[in-house]
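Predict the assembly for these two chains.
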Amino acid sequence: MRFVHLFVICALVFAAAYVYRIKMESTVRTERVLKLRADIRQQRDSIASLKAEWAKLESPKRLQELASRHLSLRPIEAIQFDSLKNLPPRPPSFVKPGDPDPIGTIIESVDLEALAAAASQDETLTGSIPQPEGAQ
Amino acid sequence: MTDQAPKRPAEPWRQRLIRTLLYGRNVDRSAKARARVGLAIIAFSLVYAVIAGRLVMFAVGGDGHGTRRTASQDAIATARPDILDRNGMILATDVKTPSLFGEPRRIIDKDEAIELLTATLPDVDAGEVRDRLSSRKGFVWLKREITAQQQKDIYRLGIPGIGFLRENKRVYPSGPIVSHLIGHVNIDNQGIAGIEKWLDSNGLADLHRAGFATDRQQEPVQLAVDLRVEHALRDELLKAKDKYSAKAAAGLVSNVNTGEIIAMVSVPDYDPNNPREANDPTRINRLTTGVFEMGSTFKSLTLAMALDSGRATINTLYDARAPLVYGKFRINDTHNLGRSVPMWEVFTESSNVASARIALSMGVEAHKAFLRKLGQLSRLRTELPESAEPLVPKRWSELNTITIAFGHGMAVAPLQAVMGINALINGGYLIPPTFLKRSREDAMQVAKQVVKPETSNSMRYLMRLNAEKGTARKADVKGYYVGGKTGTSEKVVNGRYSKKQVLNSFTAIMPADNPQYQLLIMLDEPKGLPETHGFITSGWNAVPTGGKVIERIAPLLGMTPRFDLPPSERLILAASKESR
C-alpha cells in the first residue's frame, strides 16, 4: 500500500513537470506564431506600399514626361506596322534537306588534338584553322 | 441512524431502497466505510472532471493576449480591395500609415504636450489640439495619416497619453488619370464617389460593419479600363482643350461587342489623392453626370430608324431643297444643299432638313418608340453611382420629333448615346455599358437585339463613308478603317440657341468593317483658330483630336493596321444591292 502511495506521488510530480513543460512549450510556440503573423502582416504591408510606389513610378503620365524629356523617340504610326506575311521570301537554301551542313562539317573536320599539338610547337599559331601543310 | 436501520420495518420505503442499494440488506461497518469512501471518490472525480473539462475549454479557446492587441488595431484599419485595370495595373490600393491619437485623461502636462506636438507637426492647429486634449474624452484623434518620420519624432518625444494606430490609407498611384471613373474615399475609407462607392454599396460596407474586412486578403476588383488608353485619351484631350481654349473636354472609349468602357476621361478632373478638388462644380464627370444635346450624332439614330423600318434604303431620296418651315419655325442647314439627296448624303452632309423629314416620315410615335428601345429616354444605370436623367420633352409634338431628329431638344448623358450607337454598329445588340471586365458571352446574355443586322451594316458603311468624304475626314487615320459621325450642337444661352457657344462631339468607330471600339470625343465651347479658319464646328476641332487619339490608342488596343481595304463606296453599293 505504501509503495502504491509512493508511486502515485512520483507519478504526480512527473505529471506536473510534464504538464509544465508542455505549457511552456505551447507558450513559446504561440509567441512564435504571433510573431510570425505580425511579420507576415508587416511584409504584406510593405509589399503593398512597394507595389503602390511601383505603380506610381510606372504610371503612363510619368513615363511619358520622362520619355519626352530624355528620348528622341516619337509615337509609333500605323504605317510602321507590318505583318509577317509581308516579309520577303526566305533565300533559297544551297543545302538539300538531309545533307550535312557544309560549314558544320568544316568545323568538325578540324582536328583539335593536332591543333593543340601544333600550338604547343609554334606560339604564333592563333587561329582555329590549321596552318597549311607545307608552311612549317 | 444506520445502526438500527436494517431492523426497522417502519422506515419509509424510499430510505430503505437507498440503503439496500448502498449497503445491501445486512451491512457491517467496514462495508459502510468502503461505500462512503467510494462516494467520496465519485464526488471528487466529478469535481476534477469539471476542472479538467474547463481546462480543455480554455486550451481550445486560447487566451490570445497577443491577438487581442492586433484586433483593436484592426478595428479601425478598414481595408479595401485593390482596384486593378484590365491589365492588372494598380489603380487604387491600401497603404498602412500611422495616425496620431491622444488620451486626454492620461496626459499629465497638457501645455507641454501641445507645445511639443505643434513643434513637430507644423501643419496642425494649436488651438484645435488644445480643444481636443482639454476634453474629458478617453480618446481623441489628433492627426490622421502622418508620415513615418513624424511618427518617429513624436515617439521620441515620449509624451504620455499620446499614441499611434496604424490605419489603411487609400492611395491612387496614377493620380488624376482615372479620377472620375474610380472616384475616391473619405478619411474613414468609405467610398464616396465612383467605383469606390459602388464597392461599398455592393457589400463591402456590410463587411466593414461586421468587422470582417480588416485584412488585406481581399480579392482585387478588376475593371475594364485600360490605364494606357486612358492616359493617351486624357493627354490628347488636355492638349485639345488648351489648343482650342475649350471650357471642358471629355472622351470615352468603349468596346462595341461587350459594352466595356475601356477609357473614360472628363477634363478638368481632379486628383483622387486630394479629393477636396472634386467639389469644384466645373470638374463634374460630363459623360455620366451631365446631359447634353448631342447634335448631329443623333442623326445616326434617326437614319437607323428609317433603315430598320425597311421603308428606306441608303439610296432613298429626301428633299433638302429648302429650309423646312414648321409653324413659325424654320429648320436650316449649315449650307443649303438645294436639291434632293440620297440618305447616304444626308449623313455625310449632315443635313438637318433631310433628317427632320426622315423622322417626320416615320411619325412621332415610331420615333419615340425607337429612341425608347435604344435606351435614350430613361436614366442609364451603371456601376457609377452618379447618373443623370435625360431631358426629354414632356409633350412630344411633331416639332420635337423634327428637332430631336438632328439632336436638339433632347439631352442625354453622352454615355447613353454611346450605348445607343454601339447598338447600331455591333450588329444590333443593345448592351448596357459596364466598368467591370466582361466577356463577350456575358455581354450577349444581357444584350437585346434592337435593330436588324442589315441596318447595322448600313450604319457602318455610312460612318465609313463619312470618314472618307464627309465631315469626319480629318480623323481618317490610315490603316485603321475609321468611321465616324460629327456633331455640333449649339448651346442654349439665355433661352436661345447661340451660334458662338457650341458643344462639339465626334463619334468614331474602328475598324468600320468589323467594329471593335467606339470612341467619343466632346469639346465644350471650343474657340476658332486661324488654322481652323475661325470655324468652330466639330470637323475642325473634335475630329482632328479624335484622329490623334485613334493614332495613339489603336496599337494599344491591339488593332493591326490594314492597308488593303476597299473604299466604302463600293461596299455601300454592294450592301444596297443586297438589301434590295
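Chain A has a mean pLDDT of 83. The longest helix of chain A spans residues 2-57.
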